[in-house]
């Protein structure tokens, strides 16, 4: 591991101007490329105290052995050079998009004498008009099959074209009217090219004019009693409309725009792009990226723009690009896009209307893509086995933890404290084993005490089940052992590993609870969310798993599942509490002002202690309403909760695990 101070440039060596910099390792390989408005300020950030750097940045600067830079005139030039170097050197610490290069496009080869309509993949070629990309090749073929009725453009290969030119007779498509048969001279090269250009115009969104023209021709043919021609035109119009229906109308105006959305977690991000042309979704694509460097949503958007338009020019770059967050150098990125298009490109965040609604749809697709990616990754048996082995090796376990239980605490400013327990067996979630706990022993934001209580309660149940059923199985069981009824009890089986959502304090609390109960065969660890560090009891330093580790990915998934499960339960309790709020009795007090009161004071309990003057400080609250609130709270009688008479516990219904 290199010491960054060993290759740090001397003061005054780095220019205070725009440029691009490269970090190289000891073998002179480029491991990171970046750009900056001021090279001096940006590079100074990398040579701080290592403890203050983000873990990914710290790994990069300690892997590097040298840094060099190139000065440019403008930020736009820096953006262009950064993209070129990333493509050239493929640095390991830059964001890497796993782009599916097999996305199919609908292509029209306008560079040939007789343009051809076909499905094309891979690198784009000069003189070819592209539409898409599409999710599946069959979707293109269905669209083309409908449109060939109206635009009978050649679809055959060059070899087939030459073959029929030599034979002097067309192929089957020529006989059934789905090809204009330029191979046998039914149309001239000029007429066939005009057909191809009309096909391109229709696919580019100029649909209304062409359909109206066909409708006028159909009406004229009917008036002249040319009914066969009118029927053929009617069928042509129907075919075009069916082709249009395959691309849903999404915007009222003829908008040409690309919409980009990002769904992310600590380690990965999914990017989804909708290509809208003529107000319709003409294509869709998506990527999954490893977050190798410390990058936020704005940074991911900037990298996605480079990936999308780095090789594009002209109309392939739309007039408008809608994003969830603007890049840091918005002006430079906008200018770069405009230069590639040859005219102004608007880069902005949609705020309202149809475009904002469509952006929400793209966002949902990005979230589903990330969830699907995680599911596929988690469902692979080999991957799960490797993840469990990596966890066992990192934590020093004797064997792979086939049953993992994870605990998380959730509350709202110290009220409605709840906990969750999720179970993963053989790397897969076992939802029937999920449990939820109410914490009633104390109030306040004390996650450590809450964690100690939950772990104690869970394993007291385990010990009680073990005492009731015994641990004897089969021939080794003594005569007085309880009979095994074959039914799996709620807490009968212990995990090999307990994971807590938190750092060293939460881990220590969980271990202390196990020690107090005399349980010494269950391992404990914690996963701190901020830096994804794994903490072990009695260790002052965390275990740092490689960010590409399948073991870290599994621990993260377990932790996030417990976190979401706890939050859902806490919100359901809060919703029920708000529904029976004494504020409901205040006349003229709507939901907005109720929520404003709760948000301002933190809870109904604190609101009860507030004076009329303090309530009036809340935006939208007049004195008369404040007086009504004080009266209603003073007269309110708390509703008695439902209680289990056998155990004395409050009964809570839930939608996925038991409450304990």
Task: Give a short synopsis of this structure.
This protein is α+β, with helices and mostly antiparallel strands and 660 residues long. Helices cover 42% and strands 17% of the residues.
How would you describe this protein?
The strands form 4 sheets. Strands 13, 14, 15, 16, 17, 18, 19 and 20 form an 8-stranded mixed β-sheet that branches. A 6-stranded mixed β-sheet has the order 4-10-9-8-11-12. The chain has 20 helices and 20 strands. It is globular. Helix 14 packs parallel to helix 15. Strand 5 and strand 6 form a beta hairpin. The chain is an alpha+beta fold and 660 residues long. The C terminus is likely disordered. The relative contact order is 0.06. It is 42% helix and 17% strand.
Spatial separation of the terminal alpha carbons: 49 Å
Individual helix count: 20
Q: What is the residue-averaged pLDDT? A: 79
- Estimate the strand proportion: 15-25%
Q: What summary fits the major beta sheet?
A: 8 strands, mixed
Low-confidence segments, given as residue ranges, are: 471-488, 639-659
> What gyration radius follows from the Cα positions, in whole Å?
33 Å
Structural class: alpha+beta
Overall geometry comes to globular
The proportion of residues forming helix, as a percent range, comes to 40-55%
The number of strands is: 20
């Amino acid at each position: 591991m290199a010491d960054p101070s060993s290759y740090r440039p001397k003061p005054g060596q780095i220019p205070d101007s725009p440029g691009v910099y490269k970090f190289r390792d000891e073998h002179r390989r480029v491991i990171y490329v970046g750009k900056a408005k001021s090279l001096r300020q940006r590079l100074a950030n990398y040579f701080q105290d290592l403890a203050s750097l983000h873990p990914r940045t710290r790994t990069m600067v300690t892997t590097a052995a040298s840094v060099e830079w190139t000065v440019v005139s403008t930020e736009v030039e820096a953006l262009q050079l950064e993209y070129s170097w990333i493509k050239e050197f493929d640095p390991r610490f830059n964001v890497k998009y796993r782009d599916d290069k097999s996305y199919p496009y609908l292509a029209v080869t306008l560079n040939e004498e007789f343009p051809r309509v076909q499905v094309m993949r891979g690198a784009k070629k000069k003189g070819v008009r592209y539409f898409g990309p599409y999710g599946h090749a069959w979707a293109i073929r269905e669209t083309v099959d409908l449109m060939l009725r109206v635009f009978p453009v050649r679809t055959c290969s060059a070899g087939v074209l030459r073959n029929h030119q030599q034979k002097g007779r067309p192929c089957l498509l020529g006989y059934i009217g789905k090809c204009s048969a330029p191979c046998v001279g039914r149309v001239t090269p000029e007429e066939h090219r005009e057909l191809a250009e009309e096909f391109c115009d229709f696919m580019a969104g100029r649909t209304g004019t062409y359909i109206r023209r066909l409708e006028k021709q159909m009406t004229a043919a009917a008036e002249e009693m040319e009914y066969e021609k009118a029927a053929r035109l009617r069928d042509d119009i129907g075919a075009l409309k069916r082709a249009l229906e395959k691309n849903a109308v999404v915007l009222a105006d003829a908008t040409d725009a690309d919409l980009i959305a990002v769904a992310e977690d600590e380690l990965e991000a999914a990017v989804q792009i909708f290509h809208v042309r003529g107000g319709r979704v003409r294509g869709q694509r998506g990527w999954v990226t490893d977050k190798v460097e410390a990058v936020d949503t704005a940074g991911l958007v900037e990298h996605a723009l480079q990936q999308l338009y780095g090789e594009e020019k002209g109309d392939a770059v739309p007039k408008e690009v809608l994003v969830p967050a603007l890049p840091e150098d918005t002006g430079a990125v906008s200018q770069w896009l405009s230069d590639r298009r040859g005219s102004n490109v608007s880069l902005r965040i949609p705020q309202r209307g149809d475009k904002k609604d469509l952006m929400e749809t793209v966002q949902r697709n990005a979230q589903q893509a990330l969830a699907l990616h995680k599911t596929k990754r988690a469902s692979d048996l080999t991957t799960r086995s490797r993840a469990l082995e990596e966890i066992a090796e990192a934590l020093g376990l004797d064997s792979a933890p086939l049953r993992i239980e994870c605990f998380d605490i959730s509350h709202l400013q110290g009220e409605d404290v709840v906990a969750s327990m999720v179970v993963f067996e053989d790397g897969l979630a076992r939802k029937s084993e999920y449990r939820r706990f109410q914490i009633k022993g104390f109030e306040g934001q004390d996650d450590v005490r809450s964690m100690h209580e939950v772990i104690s309660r869970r394993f007291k149940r385990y010990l009680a089940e073990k005492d009731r059923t015994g641990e004897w199985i089969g021939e080794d069981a003594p005569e007085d052992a309880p009979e095994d009824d074959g039914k799996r009890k709620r807490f009968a089986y212990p995990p090999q590993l307990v994971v807590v959502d938190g750092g060293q304090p939460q881990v220590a609390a969980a271990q202390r609870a196990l020690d107090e109960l005399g349980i010494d065969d269950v391992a404990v660890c914690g996963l701190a969310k901020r830096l994804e560090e794994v903490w072990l009891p009695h260790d002052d330093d965390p275990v740092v798993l490689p960010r590409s580790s399948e073991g870290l990915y599994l621990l993260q998934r377990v932790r996030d599942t417990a976190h979401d499960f706890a939050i859902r339960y806490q919100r359901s309790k809060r919703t029920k509490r708000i529904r029976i709020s004494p504020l409901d009795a205040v006349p003229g007090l709507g939901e907005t002002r109720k929520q404003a009161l709760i948000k301002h004071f933190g809870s109904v309990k604190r609101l009860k202690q507030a004076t009329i003057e303090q309530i009036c400080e809340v935006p939208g609250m007049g004195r008369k309403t404040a007086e009504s609130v004080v009266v209603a709270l003073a007269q309110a009688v708390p509703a008695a909760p439902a209680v289990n008479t056998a155990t004395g516990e409050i009964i809570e219904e839930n939608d996925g695990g038991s409450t304990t």
